[in-house]
Fold this protein.
Amino acid sequence: MQTIDLPLPPIPPGPLVALDYVGIAVFAVSGALLAAKKQQTLVTFFFFALVTGVGGGTLRDLLIGAPVFWVRHNETLLVIIAATMAAWFIKALRTSERPLLWFDALGLAAYSVYGASKALRYGVAPLPAVVMGIMTACVGGIIRDVLAGEPSILMRPELYVTAAAFASGLFVVLVTAGVPSLLAAVVAGLLGFSLRGAAISRGLSLPAYKD
């Protein structure tokens, strides 16, 4: 008798899902603002906001075998549309690059922690879960920069990917050690944000290879 394998129901969102929306909103705004810098149309604003906001999370979900997070409900696209319209209509966003760096740092920390958390919930081993957190936070920005012909965030001298790795790695270490996930997220997120903030304010960077 032939059996039919039914798809497993998706794992419900964890208590850290608010971090997901913080990351989406901040990165969507950064994508739309890059379109503004390039003097593009509203359609391009939305496209850049979309790929920046969901690029990393989409790749993460495909790799961990989760339903792609933004295709089964409307909330994510509504957040991205709101971010697009804010970048289009609010002039202060387009002229205040420094505050945006701090919002981006907040999104980086939030997305790093949430990406690692979701990977753990789907049974990913700790080290790959750290990588999933990094990818969640950084891949959307990489796609954005490549499409816009801008220098990639990977090539920036100040700490960026390192801050994502620190937040993601610390979260996984704390959870693996038995710390409650909410407390681990707060600690890892704040310290990851602080590291990125130090890079913004003090220009901290890793030493570069020299032949």
About this structure: The chain has one domain: 17-202.
